[in-house]
Amino acid sequence: GRPSSFKGIVDGNALPASIAMVLWGSDNLKSEGAPIGQALALMGALPRFDSYGRIAGATLIPLNELGRPRVDVVITLSGIFRDLMPLQIRLLAEAAYLAAAAEDEPLEMNPIRRHALAYQQEHGCTLEIAALRVYGNAEGAYGSNVNNLIESSQWTDEGELADTYTRRKGFAYGRDGRAEARTALMQSVLSHVELTYQNLESLELGVTTVDNYFDTLGGITQAVKVAKGGKTPPVYIGDQTKGDGTVRSLREQVALETRTRMLNPKWYEGMLESGYEGVRQIEVHVTNAMGWSATTGQVQPWVYKQLTETFMLDPQMRERLAKLNPTASARVANRLIEAFERNYWQPDAETLQALRRAGEELEDRLEGIQEGAPA
Question: Is 269 exposed, middle or buried (0-12, 13-18, 19+ CB in 10 A)?
Fold first, then answer.
């Protein structure tokens, strides 16, 4: 049957023909390769071992045993995964190649072969190239730089984020484990993708706690949107932190984390107790929420409204933030205003005016501190 982790995504819908999946090195080490297992299960493949019990490659599960069509999985790796798991890269690349080369399988049951043959026919390349499904950075490079663009506000439109992502992550890894720049092929395989997915393996880290999530999963979602001519695919998080795991839409995940962390007095009072760094963490959450808006459009407007009311429009809270960390508190205001300017939420005129005033007050305070600092 279908992989149980995807129950919830496919309930009531047909099994997707193609998905994009993000694999991190740390998460696979922590879970003993569970996300790798998911990717293989979706393709309908198993690892093959040598006589010493080491990974030697992949083997296909026959379709009659699989009982469903294969899923064309486009896999993007973190730099850490690339560095630590070369055998697993070759295993995933071989699984995709074997599926693409399965001549006796009907094309409607094997979208990997269907898509690879279409690409091969159009571009006159080998099947080996057309079947490349494992992507990542060039050797020695890490991340997609989407997070740096969001952090610095140095971007004009979302297509720029997709270009940056594809340029950084458009290196395809083949069965020999070597990488070659294949951005045109990557864009072609992404044009078939029906949803994007990543596991959440850590209780401490949420998708709004660190920018790596929107840098990788957000980045590929934006790249899929461009490849599909402007249609954003659904984005899912597989929360594996408890029991059997729960699949949530990104929208649900961001809402859950906003309520349990950012808007939870226990959480933010704990942050404020830790002083300067605590305020910086609040600012990081706001920036990461905007990173998800920029890459996926899946952050609901109430998130920004309630963050504004909690941290910026309450004079006492604003004063506490400014005293502890004037730089980060001014950044919170600026980020919320930027989210409005980029059309991620539409505050009423009164709220917007109050937010702008709060921002100006925090900026003035920051400038006053900087001017008063010893030369």
Answer: exposed
Residues 6 or more apart in contact with residue 144 via CB below 8 angstroms: 164, 165, 168, 169, 215, 216, 219
At 123-171, the pLDDT tens digits run 999 999 999 999 999 999 999 999 999 999 999 999 999 999 999 999 9
- N residues, the chain: 375
**Residue 18 to residue 207: CA distance in whole angstroms:** 23
Please state, in angstroms and rounded to a whole number, the distance separating the CA atoms of residues 24 and 33: 10
Q: How far apart are CA 281 and CA 291, in angstroms?
A: 15
The Cβ of residue 30 has, within 10 Å, a number of other Cβ atoms equal to 14
Residue 21, by phi and psi: left (phi above 0), alpha (psi -120 to 50) or beta? beta
Helix, strand or coil for residue 116?
A: helix
d(CA 325, CA 334) in angstroms, rounded, equals: 15
282: its two tokens: 């609040």
Which residues is 131 bridged to in the sheet? none
pTM of the model: 0.92
Q: What are phi and psi of 228, to 5 degrees?
A: -95, 15
Residue 136's H or E segment, with its range, is strand 134-136
Q: Decide: helix, strand or coil at residue 139.
A: coil
Give the separation between CA 344 and CA 188, rounded to whole angstroms. 29
